[in-house]
Amino acid sequence: MSLQEKFAALEAHLAALVVGQAALLNRMLVALLCDGHILVEGAPGLAKTRAIKVLSNSVEGDFHRLQFTPDLLPADLTGTEIYRPQDSSFVFRQGPLFHNLVLADEVNRAPAKVQSALLEAMGERQITVGSVTYPLPELFMVMATQNPIEQEGTYPLPEAQLDRFLMHVFVDYPDADGEHAILELNRAEAKRSVTDAELFQPQTVLTQADILAARQDVLALHLSEPLEEYIVQIVLATRKADRYGDDLQGLLQYGASPRATIALDRCARAHAWLACRDYVTPEDIQSVVHDILRHRILLSFEAEAAGQTPDQIVDMLVSRIGVP
Description:
Layout: H1 3-17, H2 22-34, E1 38-42, H3 48-57, E2 63-67, H4 75-78, E3 79-84, E4 89-94, E5 101-105, H5 112-124, E6 126-129, E7 132-135, E8 141-146, H6 159-162, E9 167-171, H7 176-191, H8 196-200, H9 208-219, H10 225-239, E10 252-254, H11 258-274, H12 282-293, E11 298-299, H13 301-305, H14 310-319
Parallel strand pairs: 1-8, 1-9, 2-5, 5-8
Antiparallel strand pairs: 3-4, 6-7, 10-11
Helix pairs in contact: 1-2, 2-11, 9-11, 10-11, 11-12, 12-14
């Protein structure tokens, strides 16, 4: 079985257990292929935790869920040094961030100190405790969630940390057919007296070697020079939006960083690879552009007052840039 066939089987397995969230499942696999982290925003009960849990059982490696709360401390993530009285020494005990897949649930409920510890782990792939730095596993992915409903008692994520996320994915409610499928799946699971581990176990488990090899395949995928220029022009347009129309003047306070260019290139390649193609099309770029840019552009006060959203601004920019 080829690597693309293994990922296709994994995506089908995820879709069978997580109903009505095809876009989220695809973005999780894209992040896995791009060695990046994703921020997922959606109302409670939309299978965000279930999705990463099913994925973790389908990948060789360990998984840990962290429930972020206002009283969380950085050591609760990184680990701490434990005193051993028998030999009067200190031994470092690793924290939850040393797992391969980490779910940071309701990440915006933790204070800045905790978020900074997560930021170092995401950006540098290492953790520093005292004067010692510990490397994280080669396969390391953070999926952070935040609840858009309740804002009281939350700490907005700083722009520097938002930029560390490869994608910011919105999760919406399923349609009527999806709700019926969820009911059927729930009834079927209730009748089976099996544990979650048995229920979520796929027929094919991706090894870490499979994932690392797939990442090399994605990087080797063909992307033409006109499409590379298309990616660059999209990112540059977020910094000089007024060049694409007077109606865009003053709507953006800050544009996307070069990380957006890199992310757009890699995610477009991964999207094409998952579609079993060996080349990138403009549709691959347009499919992931909102997830790449929506958290990297900062709207002006005038744009927010007018009810504009980042997605609307991205739509306007993309529609005015010539497609190769």
